[in-house]
Amino acid sequence: MSTTPEREARAALMRAADVGDTVMGRLVSHCGASQAVEAIRARTLPPGFPVGDASLERPADLGRRLSTWHARLTASDPVSDLVAGERSGARLIIPGDAEWPTQLDQLGAARPLGLWLHGTADLRFSCLRSVAVVGARAATAYGVHIAAQFGIGLSESGWTVVSGGAFGIDGAAHRGVLASDSPTVAVLACGVDIAYPSEHHALFAAVRDQGVLVSECPPGVHPTRARFLIRNRLIAALSRGTVVVEAALRSGALNTATHALSLKRHLAAVPGPVTSAQSAGCHRLLREQKAICVTSPEELIDLVGVIGDDLAPLHRAPALPRDALSEPVRRVLDAVPARGGAGPASIAVAAGVDLTTALSALGGLAAAGYVERVPKGWRARKTASPIYPKARETLALSTPPADHPPPPAESGSPTEMGSPNETGWSAESGPSAAAESPVLAGEGASVVQAVVPPQTASG
Predict the structure, then answer these.
(1) Do the beta carbons of residue 217 and residue 188 sit within 8 Å?
(2) Which of 15, 62, 385, 440 has the fewest CB atoms below 10 angstroms from its CB?
(3) Measuring CA to CA, how many Å separate 255 from each of 241, 250, 258?
(4) Interacting residues of 165 by C-beta distance below 8 A, sequence separation 6+
(5) What's the CA gap between 4 and 207, in Å, rounded?
(6) 114-118, 322-326, 401-405 — which one is most confidently predicted on average?
(7) SS3 labels along 379-422
(8) Using CA atoms, how far apart are residues 185 and 202, in angstroms rounded to an integer?
């Protein structure tokens, strides 16, 4: 890391001003970092500085702010910071460097003076296709699972996950990315040499190996509540969009969501149980139409990705064998009672079809296992629960109960055509019965083939 006057001046100003200080940001934009250092040492603002705009910031007393900057600047040693950072493996990047993410320029006066990085990944390259995954620290098991799922899914699709390295959702998202051997970006509210929370020491070490730690705080600076909230603007600015996995009504993740909206970035939220207080913030974002509802990494990529290239797959309802039945056959099947039984004539009247169509449909439905013969005529076969599809298939192919023998054959009745069993038609009639019967030979034959499984139709 090369040491230049501009880099040393910005390192000194990062010690003098609080993170996110817009007055300092305007001062540096107006006269440059080096002249800003000289102005602070002289405790005088440079000519032409927009004092009117600066007086709108809090505190309004610029003299007191200059005194604070002067005291901090006097105690700073930017050269030592740069040397110590380089010795520990960290580096300072400033606007104009090749690794500087240009999307941070949209922050205007709130743009950081510089960023301390510690890790192997290139920050600018990593953030070209990045998504911020944020949420509650006191996350539920549901939220942790969803965050890890998003981390894995996004990284496997070539997207970098940006988060804050905190407990709960942040940590789960980082771990999901690391599990897929992909880079991740952790934006800290303290120096990159400080592990906060300390329980995430191993997690931060893994992030340094595969990704990068980011902070606008100089080395050795410890976190404060204000720094956490100000840090959130960087998480929103570095990424193309932000997804809130879990957030209570007073969660800091909603602060990140506000920054994303102010930067005109995509904002998404994951719905949760309506009884969960940890999802109340997500539900409010969705209800107020500030966020888009997403339930999978694919849907999030569809939102933040390139139009036409990153489309999420269209989920359709599962196709059921009953969907392949023709309309007349479905009407006949609906008219068959589930209990007791009914004759073909009664079924034809209930279905609104003629007797020939009803007889043809009943024969095909019996061969396919939808209906069965009983002493009172025909009734629908009981189907297994949809939770157990294999049991349903077994039940559909089973033979009718032995305690319900078929009634005696009558002239012209469906019994003469043979009764259905697990292979299609009984041995008494044989497969040729469908071709010989006047009911099944013409229009009915096509109905039978439409509902009989392939193994039945072939023999």
Answers:
(1) yes
(2) 385
(3) 14, 9, 5
(4) 171, 174, 186, 187, 188, 200, 203, 204, 207, 213
(5) 29
(6) 114-118
(7) EECCCCCCCCHHHHHHHHHCCCCCCCCCCCCCCCCHHHHCCEEC
(8) 15
DSSP state of 318: P
- Torsion angle of alpha carbons 73, 77, 79, 83, nearest 10°? -130
- Percentage of the chain exceeding pLDDT 90: 66
Q: Could you give the CA distance from residue 83 to residue 105 in angstroms, rounded to a whole number?
A: 27
Residue 140 has pLDDT above 90, yes or no: yes
pLDDT digit string (tens) for 434-452?
333 333 333 443 444 445 4
Q: Which amino acid is at 385?
A: S
Q: Tell me the average pLDDT across 68-75.
A: 92
- When pLDDT is averaged across residues 291-297 and rounded to a whole number, the result is 95
Contact 239, 212 (CB under 8 A): no
| Helix axes of 5-16 and 33-42: crossing angle, nearest 10 degrees | 50
Sign of the CA dihedral running 427, 430, 434, 438: negative
Q: Is the dihedral of CA 167, 170, 171, 172 positive or negative?
A: positive
Look-up: residue for tokens 């910031």?
57
Q: Which two tokens stand for residue 13?
A: 């100003």
Which ranges of 127-200 does DSSP label H, i.e. alpha helix? 141-156, 169-179
| CB-CB contact of 67 with 40 (8 Å) | no
Q: Could you tell me the pTM of the whole model?
A: 0.74
Each residue's pLDDT tens digit, 195-251: 999 999 999 999 999 999 999 999 999 999 999 999 999 999 999 999 999 999 999
Place of tokens 């392939």: 454
CA pair distance 420, 414, nearest whole angstrom? 10
> Taking the CB of residue 173, how many other CB atoms lie within 10 A of it?
34
Mean pLDDT of 128-151: 96
Q: How many CB atoms lie within 10 A of CB 334?
A: 11
Look at the chain and count its residues: 459
- The beta-strand segments (E) located in 235-344 are 241-244, 266-269, 292-293
pLDDT tier, 458 (very low <50, low <70, confident <90, very high otherwise): very low
Report the alpha-carbon distance of residue 114 to residue 118 in Å, rounded. Answer: 13
For residues 117 and 94, is the Cβ–Cβ distance under 8 A? Answer: no
Is residue 416 over pLDDT 50? no
